[in-house]
Amino acid sequence: MINVCAFDLDNTLYDLIDYYGPAFRGMVKALARKTNLTPEQVRESARRVYLAKGFLEYPFIIREMDVFSKLNAHQIEGLEVLGQTVFNKVKKKRLKIYDEVDDVLASLHLGGVRVVAVSNAPLYHAYKRLRQLRLAAYFDLIVACENLRIPEGVKIRANPEPWREDASISVVSFPREEGKPSSYPFELVRKEFGDDVQYWSIGDNIERDLKPASKLGYKTIWARYGTVVDEENYRTVVNLTSGDVRKYETMTSEYGPDFCINKIKELLRIVPHVEQLDMFR
């Protein structure tokens, strides 16, 4: 029987909290210093945009922040360069995969397991993140939120659909309102691989990543290591999110996962796969 592993991305393959918290605070501090606003004014204006968009890494945030509404286009562009430079500098330093993620994904992929990403992030960001972390080669499919609308007047220099040039991976998107904790993204995975398959869902959030998948017959694996985060960075992230998101981040679930792992390497004792040495006998 084919095994399909559906991985959450944030705090399952890499620590989102550890890079996003410092990167956001650094960006806020730089923008406040440049504009003579207080960090609190900048942070709250950014928060209002995030709440409206429902996405923490909304790339056009600075041009939509109300505290900068009286600035001209040239000034806004300058702030965007400043903010993105500071944010990306911290991100590059702190965004790292968890220990042994690369080895585990390689073992599953080479062992005949179909590896899938299931994310509420826009498809572009999910794909680019896997490429940046050099993990995309292990994935057969990315299921993610449909891409963001590009604001009028914004010219995109990068390829907005880079996966179209990548024959090694398939992509499927869904409307933002159909994202996790809805079961719909997991239904899309089933449509790709059919019924005669053992499905597994791996994620750090029980209510969002595991419970909805279990309703469709997935075996569920709680990545408990993803819940061990820096408190200051966690509060930075949670305070930028909506009440619904915050609820799913902090609540205690009554659903009990099938398995719990404290290190990602423990997956290899749970998910059936062909050991690499056996493949050459």
Task: Describe the protein's architecture and organization.
Strands 4-3-2-1-5-6-7 form a 7-stranded parallel β-sheet, with helices on both faces. Helix content is 40%, strand content 14%. Helix 1 packs across helix 2, helix 1 (16-35) packs antiparallel against helix 3 and helix 1 (16-35) crosses helix 8. The longest helix is centred in the first third of the chain and has 22 residues, at 73-94. It is of the alpha/beta class and 281 residues long. Strand 2, helix 5 and strand 3 form a beta-alpha-beta unit. The chain has 9 helices and 7 strands, in the order E-H-H-H-H-E-H-E-E-H-E-H-E-H-H-E.
Q: Could you give the count of β-strands? A: 7
What is the percent of helical residues? 25-40%
Please describe the biggest sheet, giving its number of strands, its sense, and whether it closes into a barrel.
7 strands, parallel
Strand-pairing-aware structural class: alpha/beta
**Count of individual helical segments:** 9
Query: Which assembly state applies to the chains in this document?
Result: single chain
Radius of gyration: 20 Å
The rounded distance between the terminal residues' Cα atoms is 20 Å
Unreliable spans are none
Mean pLDDT: 91
